[in-house]
Structures are given as structure tokens and as C-alpha cells.
Amino acid sequence: MTPDHTSAAGPLRVRSIPAGHDYVRHALGSAIERGDIVVLADPLLDPGEPTRWWPHPALEAAARPEVLDGTDLVHVHFGYEHRSPAQVAEFVAAVRTRGVPLVVTVHDLTNPHEPDPAMHLERTGILVRGADAVITLTAGAADEIRRRWGVDSRVIPHPRLMPAEVTEPHRLGRLEKAGRTGTVGVALGSLRAGVAAEGLLPRLADALPSQTDLVVMVRSDALASARAPGHTRHEAAHALDTLTELPHVEVRPHDLLTNVELCRALSGFDALVLPHRHGTHSGWLELCRDLGLPPVIPDIGYLIEQWGHPAVSYDPIEPTVDELRRALAAALSTPPVPVRAAAAEDGAVAAAHAELYRTALAAVASRRAGSS
Fold this sequence. Notes:
By secondary structure, the protein is α/β, with parallel strands linked by helices. The protein has two domains: 7-160 and 345-371, Glycogen Phosphorylase B (Rossmann fold), CATH 3.40.50; 164-333, Rossmann fold (3-Layer(aba) Sandwich), CATH 3.40.50.2000. It contains 13 helices and twelve strands.
């Protein structure tokens, strides 16, 4: 028996992969508050890490069909990089067999955390071609999806990343310090494969304007591991250790930060350099927007289009001191980042998702009727 969701049946039950992510919470927040949608909670994988949703069991629907019980619609965002293309195809077939719509949001055509883009493209293409509806975040990405796979997608802009009560005090505090150009920040996270370090940071230090400091944030456990000879990021660790010898550079190791701690740390910067070697869109850009923090944007994917304001980009593969100097000067002298109308944006994003869900449900119902 296949599901036949109607408005009389109560709220639409969405199996979001994942559910426990800031993007999903803000993209669907107002629809959830109205009672139109229920986002099913991610399964508890480890009581010791209650917020960890990966690897998501719903992606194993082919072998474990019960993971889709109580689901009216499946929406895949990310977290499928551990599955082979064949397994992704089996997942798509399992959702189709279940008779529920499959919606896919293409956040990344190039996964920023993987060194080889080919496998991610293959997996994503299988999802896109098998979906009942496709979403992406920019018109440029929609054009590329159409060129690659012949599939039209709905462009729904990225919502805010953090709650206003977390970011707004820091944004307002930044406005009070307008005109200060003292500190440039870089957040390297866990030194994943797609993060530039050894090729970027020494040149960035040389490109700093006079009287400007550089603060490089990095996970302390990742840095300690990378110092081991033979580690894939050993050269990055060496570059970071060398930078500490410069008087205007601080390498700041840290543990896993909460959202509040991350926003507090970023609010001390006057510009944030995004160090991604490749990617399509960036949640870091939206966090910059939330905080009113000017970004220095790598020339990859559709980040400039996503930002939507004047910006000077840089080549993250072969950056030069001159282009970094121009990009830093532009970011540090830019007018205040326009404040986002967060509630209105979130409402529009949620409404667009709800409309697309209704369309996908109708398409699946029509397909079932035609095959009966």
C-alpha cells in the first residue's frame, strides 16, 4: 500500500536527510511552526553523540525499508558521500518502490570535502535524475544541473544559518566598530582535503595591509594529527607551525565549537577569508551575512553569485600575493554588509519548499494513477 497524503491527513511527514542541520531548520522553520510539515527526527545513532546524524540510516532504504516507515516525502540534502553510486541508485529505486516523492537539493556539485569531484558528481547525477523535484541555491548551479543531466531545478536561496538571537548581538557590535581594519580571520576547521592551507596562508600573511593581524583557527586535534610525518595534511601543519613565528600571525587551535562560541570567535574579525579549494555554495557565506562580516571569497563554483554583493575573489589553487592584497583591501573597505530580513527570507524559503512538496506529491499521485 502506498501513501496518499492529503491536507486532511495532517501535516506532511518529511524524512529529511539530514533533519538535524541548521540549513534544514531555517529552510522549513515557518512551515513547521504552522503545522504544515513535520520533519522526522534523525535516528539516534550514538547516545554519547546525540546530535550526530551521519551515516544516515535512511540512505540504506534498499536493505532496510523500515527506515521509511511513516514517511510521506523524502528530501536528500547531503551526507551521501559514503555510499557508492550503485548504492545511491538502489536508494532511489527503494524510494520509488515505496511510492513517496524524492526531492533533492543540490548544495554541492563539487564536494568541498573530497579531493576528487568525479565520484560526487556521479552520485549526485543519480539522485537528480531519479528525483521528482530538484532544488538548488543559485541560477548558475541550476544552469549547470540542466547542462549536465537535462533536469530543471527550482532555485531557492540559502536561508540564514544561525538563529538571530545568536548572531544579531555580534552583527550590531560590528556596526559599532565600523571602520576598524585590525584582524583578518581564516577558519580551517579539521583540515579536510578541500581546505587550502600551505598554498594560501604564507601568501595571505604577505598580503596583509599594514597594521593588520591574521588569526588562523584550526581544530586542535586535527593539527596534532597532521604533525605526524606521512599524514596527508603534514605540509599544512608545517605551514601553520611556521606561521606562528610571524609577529602579526596567530594560529589559534580550538576544540569543537558550539554555534555560540563560533559566532563569538568570528565576530572578532574584520574580514573572513574562505579557504576552500573547490565547492559550489557555502554555508560560511551565509554565516558571514548573518554576522555582517565581509568575506574574502575563493573563485569557485557560484559563491560570488550566492553572496550577491560586490566582492573581489581570489584563485584558491594558485593564489598570488597581489590578488590576495586586492581582495583583502576590498573586503576591509566595503560598506557594511546589508542586513538580511531574516524572518521574511525564512518565510519565503519555507513557502517555496511547501509549494514544491505539494507539486512533487501531485506528480507521484499522477504517476501512480497512470500505472494502475
